[in-house]
Amino acid sequence: TYKIGNNITNNFSIRFIDSCRFMAISLSKLATNLITPGLEKFRETNKVFISEDFSLVTRKGVYPLQVHGQLGKIRRTLPRKDDFYSTLKEKHIKDLDYEHATSVWSHFGCKTLGEYSDLYLKIDVLLLADVFENFRDICIATYGLDPAFYFTAPGFSFDCLLKHTKINLELLTDYDITTSVDKLYSALRARCIHVVFRVLRLQPVYITIRLL
């Protein structure tokens, strides 16, 4: 039994959706697309942070992922710029990004890397919520369908196609056509597997983490 507002209900479900299945772009770029003069699209962020914080929390933060496992939450100063080096991207962060990290650490009074980590994750989650809610608003207004009820963009797009063309799909009854479709499906699946294994050879560590 769950209580939502003043209502108590047994009809409650949780669905985990990968936003990358709909928007295969970095959160940094997606958050930048939400910026307007009034910042009204950051609805979830606005519920947690005050207006004085907005210049720091309406963009993707930066985090020293490489040193977190070594220094953990006991580090009491912001790591050096060199510690923000990304082994995945094989490059250092820009000076402006490090200045942003310094401003966030100072503005929110972080005393340890653990506090900075918690803040970084909070901002990340809120930005992703704002991005996806804005995406939902656009899809509902444009197509009259809510992407939150789908698992991938192709599935959502297919229903948009059916709704707006008003086409009634017929079942495949011709043996030759059915066989051709099966062969095409098998070929596409084999191609996808080939691409995955090719990427695995190039980036084994990263892919292993993503698959877990």
TrEMBL record:
Protein name: DNA-directed DNA polymerase
Species of provenance: Sipha flava
